[in-house]
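[step 3/7] inverse_fold.run input=structure_tokens len=81
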């Protein structure tokens, strides 16, 4: 159970950093001229992809732990029968 909390805490911490970076990039888009806006848009897309990867990794880790827990419960149920 503590492992699940750690995964979620890491997810929230990294999410906060990514969102802060996205905010900075979006603010730069408003402030900079058109030619610089394109590079900022590329950076925003990279951050978007980073966040999606983070969510995917966290989901996979949690699903893996859920399967392990399910198997452990199943074994205990069969052992008691």
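[step 3/7] decode complete -> sequence:
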């Amino acid at each position: 159970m503590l492992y699940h909390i750690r995964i979620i805490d890491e997810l929230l911490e990294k999410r906060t950093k990514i969102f802060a970076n996205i905010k900075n990039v979006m603010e730069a888009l408003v402030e900079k001229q058109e030619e610089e806006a394109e590079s900022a848009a590329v950076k925003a897309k990279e951050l978007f992809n980073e966040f999606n990867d983070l969510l995917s990794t966290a989901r996979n880790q949690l699903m893996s732990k859920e399967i392990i827990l399910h198997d452990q419960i199943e074994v205990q149920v069969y052992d008691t029968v």
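[step 4/7] annotate
The longest helix spans residues 34-80.
The chain is about 95% helix and 0% strand.
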